[in-house]
Give the backbone structure.
Amino acid sequence: MAGKEEVFVGSIDQGTTSSRFLIFDTAGEPVAVHQEEFTQIYPNPGWHEHDPEEIVRSVENCIEGALKIFEKDGHSKDSIKAIGITNQRETTVVWDTTTGEALHNAIVWTDTRTAGIARELKAQKGSDKTMNICGEPISSYPSATKLLWLLKNVEKVRKVYEAGNLAFGTIDTWLTYKLNGGPEKNIFVSDPTNASRTMFMDIRKLQYSDEMLEFLSYEFDLKKVHMPKIVRSADKEVYGKLSSGPLKGFPIMGCLGDQSAALVGQKGFEAGSAKNTYGTGCFLLYNTGDKPIISTHGLLTTVAFDFDGKPVYALEGSIAVAGSGVKFLMNNLGFSQASHKITELAESVPDNGGLVFVTAFSGLFAPYWIDDAHGTMFGITHHTERGHIARATLEAVCFQTKAILDAMQKDSGHALKELKVDGGMSNSALCMQTQADLVGIPIVRPKMRETTALGAAIAAGFASGVWKSFDELREVNTVGETVFEAKMEKGESERMFKRWGRAVQMSKGWLAEEEELEGHQEEAREIKESIKEDESGASK
Ligand SMILES: Nc1ncnc2c1ncn2[C@@H]1O[C@H](COP(=O)(O)OP(=O)(O)O)[C@@H](O)[C@H]1O
Ligand SMILES: O=P(O)(O)OC[C@H](O)CO
């Protein structure tokens, strides 16, 4: 008797620090995984770039690596029915439509070089109207100011723009374009969860907003830039097929920005469900159903998913620094060589010893949106040791999550009963316990934490008919959860949070002051120059 046919779905997870390819079975279990880190480029303070070609190569390597494991374990690649893509959002790539070549390194979502453009736009045009059209305030975070910076500062980009051949895309668009073979097939699409991170899309119509394009046009006509067609997150036809490698000819059928994918992977399908993903940054998404809620408390409105033309929305609290804070202690300060060692270091002290670390390396995102802050430590004394710094780094993301949850409750009028978590930093039990202590509700961590990749697999699985309804996924990844209950005395957690609030207030304005200083330096240089001229004149 023939055995039951095996069925699998592949998932490309292109994150900020690494790419992965996972192959899931129909129970939502990954049976093969390959992961590869790629280069983080920091050309100047506050700048963060990726090489777009290296990103594509890393994805191709991951597909190859995972497939080797899959086939070695006796599976046939023909049992892979579809592939989903999930990706770091906002990160901006520009290329020439005639050659398919990237014209500059990708500007990563964390990059703050465009804070000046954001400030100028706000001053020229006001900051009130964007939230209601695209769900986001003007800041360095969305793709819009990154594209403006490239147009303004990179001659090569400007020339291609003037010739009418400039393509803009987020990483989902770049990957589908390149994996399909580039200009020849010219698959040039984005899904609404990604497009809602650019500031170009009307959050209700899920199409580009003429008003936003005009508003953001600055010195350039953004309508002259080729922008990808916005299509559904799950679709049989529009995402094309891999053009090379061991899965050549296999169809891509799903696409979700990574934070939306994590919500889907945590099965946050219904209004009222939420998840918090502690990766490079940390992002809390709260499903608000079929209506977008425009925040009045510092949150963003985003698309959670659009599987069938009936989009589901989310309120989002974005934190720029989470795991990247841990990496900073490892790579920049030499604290240790492994992430889990940072947690061990934090456990070596009983508390933060009065230290608060506002990890505003990219300014502070939600719910504060302070773009003139940089990372600042408060409360350093002779008592402070490395353990306190490690602890304060883990605590920073928990404090910011608490502030986001408070804002979310005000916007939605609904208090969460529990918070589902995932992402690399959720491996830290100390961090998750601190989170529970600060927010006072249970923190629920699944056993299988590749929920982002699972979300993209679910999108592709829906389009290919592997799964047909949300109900079929109810039992996926429910066994072996860890629940962290609040243990700290309420007065103590309130005291800690109050101190954090004070530190946030005190971190404001640092960059403005620095610019002022730079202004004085310029003045000082001018004075010195004029003195030199006077002196040389006098000696003649
Ligand atoms: N045990 C741990 N304690 C603290 N941080 C951790 C731990 N394990 C992983 N991390 C952090 O998680 C991050 C990676 O998470 P991941 O979800 O893979 O991120 P991304 O998808 O953004 O690349 C890294 O910054 C890493 O330092
Ligand atoms: O790399 P992550 O997982 O922190 O996610 C990046 C986000 O999509 C940026 O908005």
